[in-house]
Design brief:
By secondary structure, the chain is of the alpha/beta class. It has a domain at 4-116 and 209-227: Peroxisomal Thiolase, Chain A, domain 1, CATH 3.40.47.10. It has helices spanning 21-36, 61-68, 85-98, 118-126, 141-155, 160-174, 188-193, 221-227, 256-269, 286-295, 304-309, 326-329, 334-349, and strands at residues 4-11, 45-49, 76-79, 104-111, 196-198, 201-202, 212-220, 232-241, 278-280, 320-321, 363-370, 375-382. It starts with a strand and ends with a strand.
């Protein structure tokens, strides 16, 4: 296998954007190309993750993006895996570089959904569930994650205030991120008094609908050294699956795909969870981050809320969770989210994260799943 590296990274701001899905994807891609210090012609292929391009009247995004970058002769692949699309796209690109098929690839994730309105956007999201058993019965993702939250509150020593603390922590981080969607300081009281979306989850327990695009350049280490720019190594990659419908799982306070993907990624990297300095995890709802940190092996099952309570997941604590602000504050442009996590890791490990820097960090991971965790990918990155 070739040694695989991330050589450059770029991203638009996340939030409500006026530009088209093509424009924002090209913007992020151009930023990544500039960051890497390469020319578009150096890219041998493109991997584009997107879920609802049809909402902006553009599917088959790959060739459109490559054409706008002036490299229409280079092949591309558009990938959809619900909210985990970005990490799955990254994984496929990683595998192709590692196998020696290409020495330099573009991975871009993108989404434009805010213009469709809350009702339609919520409906679109529901199509990512097991629609026959869940969405068509009127259950949206807030309801599904609320079921997980209620089960967690019943099974473990946890309170709704513990979940609220996750939101407070991520907003504190997001304030330090100029590209975050929600750069607003909040308190536990703010979360607790916000509108109930699906009990016990309230408005501030939920990530926002966001537009945005992120991109990275993946290459062999030989290519990276030849270019001479800042790069980080991809040392582990793992994927896992879970029953598509929440009702099909033995326990709903754990996400099996996360456990499987993280074990595979750690094994490939030759590390354990204790070696990780920081993690970008999939916190679409506050309960998700708590469950994620347990399934990733950072804390024992049922102890994730205790870690939040004691401040163990804040910036530069025991393990910095979501220094970018996470989906909760940075935002969640579905197809871009997994790639955006890699952008954050690149910035952290190349000393470009500014005031949200995780001090003395050498190992970071990304964790991104689709739906309620039916599909998941985890990646391990190390500084050079």
């Amino acid at each position: 296998m070739e040694s695989v590296c991330v050589l450059g990274a770029g991203s638009t701001k996340y939030g409500r954007l006026d530009d088209s899905i093509v424009d924002i994807t090209v913007q992020a891609s151009a930023d990544a190309i500039d960051s890497a210090g390469i020319e578009p012609g150096d890219i041998k292929a493109g991997y584009i993750s997107n879920v609802f391009g049809i909402a902006d009247k553009q599917v088959h995004l790959g060739p459109v993006i490559m054409s706008n970058l002036g490299i229409s002769d280079k092949p591309s692949l558009s990938i959809e895996s619900a909210c985990g699309s970005g990490s799955v796209s990254f994984r496929e690109a990683y595998a192709n570089v590692a196998a020696g098929f290409y020495d330099c690839l573009l991975v871009a994730g993108t989404e434009k959904v805010t213009h469709t309105g809350t009702e339609w956007t919520t409906t679109y999201f529901a199509y990512c569930s097991d629609f026959f058993h869940e969405g068509s019965a009127g259950v949206s993702f807030p309801g599904l994650f609320a079921s997980m939250a209620r089960a967690y509150l019943t099974e473990f020593d946890a309170t709704e205030e513990d979940f609220a603390q996750v939101a407070v922590k991520n907003h504190n981080n997001g304030i330090l991120n100029p590209k975050a969607h929600l750069r607003k300081k909040i308190t536990i009281d703010d979360v607790m008094s916000s509108a109930v979306v699906a009990s016990p989850l309230k408005l501030y327990d939920c990530c926002p609908f966001s537009d945005g695009a992120s991109a990275v350049i993946l290459c062999t280490e030989e290519f990276a050294k030849k270019v001479g720019g800042d790069y980080i190594r991809v040392t582990g990659s793992g994927r896992g699956g879970s029953p598509a419908a929440l009702q099909g799982r033995e326990h709903i306070t754990t996400i099996p795909s996360t456990v499987l993907a993280s074990k595979a990624a750690y094994k490939m990297a030759g590390i354990t969870a204790k070696d990780v300095d920081f993690a970008e995890v999939h916190d679409c709802f506050t309960i998700a981050e708590v469950v994620d940190t347990e399934d990733l092996g950072f804390f024992e099952k049922g102890k994730g809320v205790e870690a939040v309570r004691e401040g163990k997941t804040t910036l530069n604590s025991d393990i910095s969770i979501n220094p970018s602000g996470g989906l909760k504050s940075k935002g969640h442009p579905i197809g871009a989210t997994g790639v955006g996590q890699v952008v954050e890791v690149y910035d952290q490990l190349t000393d470009q994260a500014g005031p949200r820097t995780v001090n003395d960090a050498h190992i970071g991971i990304t964790h991104n799943f689709g739906a309620t965790g039916a599909s998941c990918a985890v990646h391990v990155f190390e500084s050079v």
